[in-house]
Design a protein that fits this description.
11 strands; 4-stranded antiparallel beta sheet; 125 residues; mainly beta; 7-stranded mixed beta sheet
């Protein structure tokens, strides 16, 4: 059974940092792409970043470039999203997703097969 479990969300002040974790199980970690998505109140789900565990390629949307870093720990089958310089507009439920299909630079916009339940991130003073 494939499982994706997010953790690390919480309340943080603007300018602060958080690290989200996506613990995975049930598939061969190094063969999969892992992504982070977010959904703000009243808005649709938005892709944020992805990593290819087969070749290490990472992708970020423009609004988080230079502030967020995605990384994979192959000893723990876990993907992290380090978020810095957080802004109120980063407030959302953050989800991780997994899929084995390659996609190169287009991977973020392609379908994702497995999803976690999400973790809330709130950026507010």
């Amino acid at each position: 059974e494939v499982r994706l479990v997010e953790s690390g969300g919480g309340l943080v002040q603007p300018g602060g940092s958080l690290r989200l974790s996506c613990a995975t199980s049930g598939f061969r970690f190094e063969d999969y792409n892992i992504a982070w998505f977010r959904q703000a109140p009243g808005k649709g789900r938005e892709a944020v970043s992805s990593v290819s565990n087969s070749d290490g390629q990472t992708i970020y949307i423009d609004s988080v470039k230079g502030r967020f870093t995605i990384s994979s720990d192959y000893t723990k089958d876990t993907v992290y999203l380090q978020m810095s310089s957080l802004k109120p507009e980063d407030t959302a439920v953050y989800y991780c997703a997994a899929d084995p299909t390659p996609g190169g630079n287009d991977r973020l916009v392609l379908p994702w097969e497995y999803w976690g339940q999400g973790t809330q991130v709130t950026v507010s003073s």
